[in-house]
Automatic annotation (TrEMBL):
Residues 25-76 form the PAS domain. InterPro entries: PAS (IPR000014), PAS-like_dom_sf (IPR035965), PAS_fold_3 (IPR013655). This is PAS domain-containing protein. SMART domains: PAS (SM00091). It comes from Rhodoplanes azumiensis. Pfam families: PAS_3. Gene3D superfamilies: PAS domain (3.30.450.20).
Length: 173
């Protein structure tokens, strides 16, 4: 799917009782999407299967956040993150994501599982300016590799300045 979607700047919400669930293969291609996921993002399950999970990536999200996420899950560890996603119609929605690797019987990673919940509003208000700052840092560099490295450094500098590890910080927001 190479259709370019423009953000509408309209936020949509889902119920605190709902859980967005998806699974991907090792490359991040969607292998499962529950009804809540389909409903909030506006894609049908058939449209999502085999697509990169980044199909819902909002342009306001810095690449550095996804580097942190991917580095963590590829290392076999779970990660929590606040993510701004974009629906098929350009609307956006925030989630508190819990992403875990899926293992086979030999403890080899075979894919990834993500559960997303409604985030606390105060956490979104805290993280949105940080993400904007990291995105600005990434935009200062013409080379993609340099942009990612600079954004990642900015993200980690922020975490370090808070005096707690990332895992604790995410729950403290």
């Amino acid at each position: 799917m190479s259709v370019r979607i423009s953000p509408t700047h309209r936020e949509v919400f889902f119920s605190p009782d709902d859980l967005i669930v998806s699974k991907t293969d090792l490359k991040g291609r969607i292998t499962y999407a529950n009804k809540v996921f389909c409903d909030i993002c506006g894609y049908g399950a058939a449209e999502l299967m085999g697509q990169p999970h980044s199909i819902i990536r909002h342009p306001d999200m810095p690449r550095a956040v996804f580097k942190l996420l991917w580095d963590t899950i590829q290392d076999g560890r779970e990660v929590f993150a606040y993510v701004k996603n974009m629906a098929k119609n350009g609307d956006h929605y925030w989630v508190f994501a819990h992403v875990t690797p899926s293992f086979d019987e030999n403890r080899q990673i075979v894919g990834y599982h993500s559960n997303r919940r409604v985030p606390e509003r105060r956490a979104v208000e805290a993280v949105a300016p940080l993400y904007a700052e990291v995105l600005r840092e990434e935009a200062r560099h013409a080379n993609g590799k340099d942009a990612l490295a600079a954004g990642y450094r900015r993200l980690l500098d922020f975490v370090d300045a808070q005096g707690m590890p990332y895992d604790e910080l995410v729950f403290a927001l």
